[in-house]
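New to this. Help decode both lines:
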Amino acid sequence: MAVFAGWNESERRSRTFLSAAAALVFAATADAQDLPASVTGPYVEYERAVEAGDGAAAYDAARRAFEAGQAERIDRETLGLLAENFGSMAAANRDFEQARDAWREAARLGDRARLSPTERAWRWHNAAVNAFLAEDTRDAHRCSRETVEALADLERIEGDALLFAEEAYALNARMALSTGQARRALEPAQALIALRVASGEVPDATLANAHYIAGISRLVRSDNVEAAYHFHMARDIARDQDTDTEELETLVYNASALRALAAGRAGHRASQVDDHLERDPLHQSRYMPEVDDEEPDLPPGRVDAEPIERAEPRYPRSAEEDGMEGVVIVEFAVDENGRVADPQIRASIPGGLFDEAVLSAMEDWTYTPATQEGVPVRREGVSVCFTFMLS
């Protein structure tokens, strides 16, 4: 599953619009409050540098204006706007750590100044994005949680909030998975699904990924029927895309494997998955009849490999102590001697955290080998899913 890696076109438009609005508000505030020259001087330099397209000069001037505002102890609202300018210029100059710090300060000032939920969410979202770009996943998760908490203060997502809410929910959900907090990914994933469905747009990879993340969160909660439903939707939506990318192929494979796992764990309740699908208008209108998910029949004379002994992997102590949960999907072959051969990690959430424990456990697995007309043969394409869940 790809991780959020930048701004899409709607995000770019929203950033431009809100930055322009911030500049207008600042100009009005500066006139009204007669700010000291130590602040207005570099701010005027900043405006001129922006108009001239001189990013380096705008970055430097924005920094000086913000630092002067801090030194002069100007009001929180105006200082927050200066922090926004500084954060925007730092990001434009690819100084993501500085951008993260500036946007986070703008967000904190916005919280103290009791700005509108949309403005507070926007600032926290920028802090989260720049933390992600600075490769600070944990801080990106913390800031993105602040974003969705601010959005939760809105009666409905509308107006300017619609310009960035989808990406805010997506980032929060994905950062939750990346930090081993899969249970926390459910609410933002469901909020993203609701926004995408309400938009009336054609289902796309964003919606498929949202269902996939919701499925993982449900799986580690042992909500197996709901997990199977979400994985089913993720698979069908991903299969329905016009483009045929490696990312979508991986999503289809992983969602299919995890759907089978969740349905198996649901046991006699597995039939309830169909009830969920029948209540989903999108599934009924686009994805019926159900795509057959069964494996193709074995060739004549072939007997498949069957497990004899499969020890479960140990929960890594560090992950357990840190309260981290996750999912691993492994594809492998069973050789002619009934041993696991060439195991390949197909999905790892969080990336790499549980891989060693899984591969170590699989070293001692044994199978009755597959046979062709009674002769042992190598069986390719066996897949197994592991979930690491805390009590």
Remarks:
- Confidence is low (pLDDT under 50) at residues 1-25.
- The first strand starts at residue 302 and ends at 303.
- Residues 9-33 form the longest helix (25 residues).
